[in-house]
Amino acid sequence: MRILVTGAAGFIGSHAVDVLRAAGHEVQGLDSLAPAVHTGRPDYLPGNFDLAVGDIRDRDLVRRAVAGADVVCHQAALVGLGVDLADLPGYADVNVTGTAVLLEAMGRSGVPRLVLASSMVVYGEGAYDCAGHGRVQPAPRSVDDLSAGRFEPRCPQCAQELSTATVTEDAPLDPRNAYAASKVAQEHLAATWARMTGGSVVALRYHNVYGPRMPRDTPYSGVAAIFRSALEAGRAPQVFEDGQQRRDFVHVRDVARANLAALRAGVPGSLRAFNVASGEPHTVGEMAGALAAAFGGPAPEVTSRYRLGDVRHIVASPDAAASGLGFRAEASFSAGMTEFAQAPLRRPASSVALLGDCPAAERQSACRA
Which of 87, 124, 152, 227 is the most exposed place for a label (fewest CB within 10 A)? Predict the structure, then answer.
């Protein structure tokens, strides 16, 4: 197959390029190489790799890039939770408008398949059960509760404590921050494209991805990169809340393998979504401790700080991906964290400037995964 990978120079996109090429596919890439995150073409991309440099919102560029492709693996995105209101236009523009531009180009060129990088954040909070009311969907946690150290969601009907369950793909979508809202919009646009063109979409809802080539610490980094950056700087990882938040940490090479497995899995005229997860939940505190121990750095510090828009627990069921894609994660938590503790992180173009400090035009053009 001829495959276009958007965001091909980024963290997940570059690993997808590696796996797809190793499987014998003809792979081309598109990436903005935004100066906020790249100093130029990364040296981990193969020297003979065909990379088009430009913005996912550039209609002419995107039309040229998709021409002749059999599949598009769409990894390009402005990532992270979002720091303040100034980020809202960027998420809507890059992630939503950029995806719309891509889908239009695919429709005009007759590209029949899309593998979409979605995210666990589309679910909002994970799955919860109340002893008295069964499966419930808790409301967003209030500032008053978080400030008082009451981190666990409560039943929206009786305010009692809840027990957690695994999230399946049929869970309702409940985005709770700007990035999450943009990911839901991507899925809805892709589903519309599929109905209009008869194309197929596989939306891979990545859980907490970690591994080599993660960017260094910025306000938009994943928690694993933030902890790893702190350790490299000789600082203790700062764990928010009480560290008991449960997540599913999945290695980036497994995520790349999921993209390979999804190439032929779509159903014409529709979107199918799959969790991409390890199936082995761990707390954020456990992850920080494992990284610190493997790195040989200071032990994590639990701070009780919080971020509005964060969710408490989200643990996925990997069963649908196993049955529908033939995919199961292979990297164990202990081995993956040991490797990641020593793996080099990707340094932004300006190691002293955080992404949030860059001009808006640069921040909004950081369209890579």
Answer: 152
Q: Residue 238 in 3-state DSSP?
A: strand
pLDDT (0 to 100) of residue 117: 98
- The percent helix, strand, coil of the chain (3-state, each to 5) is 35, 20, 45
pLDDT of residue 218: 60
Return the pLDDT at 119: 95
| pTM for this model (two decimals) | 0.91
Name the nearest CA neighbour of 336 among 206, 212, 205, 233: 212
Residue 215, pLDDT score: 83
Model pLDDT, residue 113 = 98
41 neighbors 47 (Cβ within 8 angstroms) = no
Structure tokens at 341: 């503790």
Beta bridge partners of 215: 346
Do residues 169 and 320 lie in contact, with contact meaning Cβ atoms separated by under 8 Å? Answer: yes
Nearest partner of 80 among 310, 305, 246, judged by Cα? 310
Query: Which among 330, 331, 252, 336 has a CA at the least distance from the CA of 291?
Result: 336
Q: Which stretches of the chain drop beneath a pLDDT of 70?
A: 81-83, 217-221, 348-369
* Tokens representing residue 212 in the block: 């080599």
Q: What angle do CA 90, 246, 337 make, to 5 degrees?
A: 85
Q: Residue 341: which of 228, 200, 189 has the closest Cα?
A: 228
- 71-74/2-6 β-pairing: parallel
Strands 246-247 and 208-210: unpaired
| Whole-Å CA distances, 63 to 16, 22, 203, 269 | 21, 26, 22, 21
CB-based contacts of 23, cutoff 8 Å, min separation 6: 260
Contact criterion met (CB below 8 Å) for 203 and 116: yes
Q: Please report, as a single letter, which amino acid is at residue 315.
A: V
Structure tokens at 268: 């014409």
Q: How far apart are CA 140 and CA 124, in angstroms?
A: 8
